[in-house]
């Protein structure tokens, strides 16, 4: 009779021993960046990294300089902290640094979607075609109408809409943007009340998945949480299925274009359902949280709110009394543009990753050369390297609504580091091949929402002295940060003047 317990225990010891041995055997080669394998075999610095990513990277930079390699859970990451040296990584003319490989593994794990050849390029093509120019203008009109439906209801303002209502600001922003975005992209029926109810139920499930997302990516879930993630994945695959979409009107041209490509490639309907889940997350995972920070900063800085309302009055005129505003005004709002760019500078903290294919030499702006090892991952963390650099952005932790405005009111694009003009002065959307293809739509959604809220509603914090909450440390590296606790606010519909 086989004793399975001792056998499995021995096998586990062999596997763990092998993984530890790989970490112990790795040594720094000539011209490679400083190597810091961390205190624990295989895990390396994973725990410190997860606990507080920015503080960990600050310590490593103070210890090793602007380039260093650290071990995180058996994988070696080379962080480049000098923004003047980003261009060779982001351009990568020799194609030695691959973003697509890492992204394909991630979406398979998180959303269950198995990439097909050319789909990454297809998403960018679809976004250029339908999320810019006339395509974006049409989608903005749909988004405006869906925002009106979500905020005011299917029958318009209720009789008590001018009375104060109280809510959590984060929940309110995330809920409204998610529902309006979902209906705008994935379609609706003739029954608006039913659509809103379904969107509300879907948002509840989306937030459950959202809360598990960071630890899911790092494979740190407990047994029950793994089961919950599986349930949520199946629910979204079903709700967003191509079969369900056939019964709806108004499915966006963007989604329809991409699904048509997948059908032509012979992708099974079940895999198309998973693709839709991925696109829902990509389009709605950051707009709500970003809008929360934008409204909170405006509420905490009355001079910014006043400047924005004055701009809205100028560009909208009498139309500011109507939710049915002309979406073309979004092209004439430099103050709002600066507010959103400053909000993203403070609130967006993505990590940009590239897998190294074949040993590769990275030349820094200083002229120093470092050899990057095949199979390692090059990582950029612009939040720390760019957004919080006082040389590029004086008083980097302060919200300055006009930071991205010139004295004449035009957009400011000239920023410097060490006396040199810097190209990548903010990077909330990533850059290069990993730049978010839906950024124009996302920005338009948020601008529309903020514009409608500040022109049609009186807004105030329940406690005017409440501080801006610190960010949830679990969210570092995953796009827009989320607050560590809720902020209560009041709102009421403004009476027509």
Give the count of helical stretches.
18
Radius of gyration: 24 Å
Task: Name the CATH superfamily classification of one domain.
Answer: Cytochrome P450
The helix/strand class is alpha+beta
What overall geometry do the principal axes of the alpha carbons give? globular
Q: Give the distance, in angstroms, between the N- and C-terminal Cα atoms.
A: 87 Å
Report low-confidence residues grouped into runs of 5 or more. Answer: 1-22
The tally of beta strands, per DSSP, is: 15
Give the topology, please:
Layout: H1 4-25, E1 35-36, H2 46-51, H3 53-64, E2 67-72, E3 75-80, H4 87-91, E4 97-98, H5 100-111, H6 119-130, H7 133-152, E5 165-168, H8 169-186, E6 187-188, H9 192-217, H10 223-239, H11 242-245, E7 249-251, H12 253-264, H13 269-284, H14 287-300, H15 302-316, H16 334-347, E8 352-356, E9 360-363, E10 369-372, E11 377-380, H17 382-387, E12 416-417, E13 420-421, H18 439-456, E14 457-461, E15 488-493
Parallel strand pairs: 1-2, 3-11
Antiparallel strand pairs: 2-3, 4-8, 5-15, 8-11, 9-10, 12-13, 14-15
